[in-house]
What does this fold into?
Amino acid sequence: MKGLIVLDFDGTITCRDTIAALAHRAIANQDDDGGGDERRRKRESWRAVVDAYLADYRRHVASWKYSSPASGASGGGDNGLAGSGDDDGDNGGGALALERELAFLESLCIVERASLARVAAAGLFRRLRRADLLRFGAKAVAAAAGGGAGDVKLKGDGDGGDDAVYLRAGFREFVHEVGGAVGGRRGDGRNGDGDGDGNGWRLGLVSVNWSGAFVEGVLGETPARFAAGMRVNEVSWPDGRITGPSPLSPAEHGESPPPPLLTAGDKLAAFQSLKRASAAEEDEERSREVVVYVGDSVTDLACLLDADVGVVMVDGDGDKADSKLLQTLRRLGLTVPRVVEGGISSPLPRLVWARDFDDILRSKMLDKALVAGRQ
It folds into this structure.
């Protein structure tokens, strides 16, 4: 029995969302021959994009109505929904509450699409090549480690971001232990001298980040360890539009360029495509592999519930450990215990939470998941 682990990127591998860092890097890269006018214009455009997104989001939450496919019943939007910023509402538990939650998350696609249209119109990523985006990611990690002294800093742009990207504790160690040997072609199931397995596991990644190249730059050498593949949006050349990841197979999607990953449902489809590809590449035993998903936000909700084991990344510790996703899962009536040092209860819970990758490794939960899968 083998296993597949699929990770989210923003807020899971990293300590916080990295879209602002990506945008700041793109702005800092602008040709400044005009006395800084172009950079100033792009900074103003980015602030306008952020402000418009937040305004659209608030309007959507306030006006959204849920209509059950089965009954046609409808209700207001701002009532404890995962994305509403108001978790005090009593949405109850059960299948109907989950259906409503997922419907709301899918409805946000209109907000996300409008935002990407503004990004394209502003030309924030125009004429940026893959090599530029890889470099942005690598420099962002270097800045977090104190190695970015020569970088242009863009703090104070009104969105709470800067150009540094911080990795969650234990990530490098986790990937080295779980991701197998480095070498070979990423995504072909053959990693170096082995078969892409690390202690019985293969790694994959799914993200709604705007640039897979930026993500790879942040990860450094570790993309080679993601033998199951990476499903992340891309910045197209030369227009700088955000498009979806390339299909894993010609039959997977007919649109060209593929549509971007924006919602919880989009992430679920990408997650399921990795599962299908992983099962198809391996023998009959692999087709029964244990699947673990690790994520931190409400856009990971569908993926977490589709996995054999879902791990929720949470900031803080003890009584202070919390997140909107964790609140949402509990409000839906789901029990989410914390992984603890030395192991977790038997049988293995379907959902657990952890502070970081050190938590996961110390808990030995992955060993338990493989053992449970063999039974």
In short: Residues 19-144 form one domain.
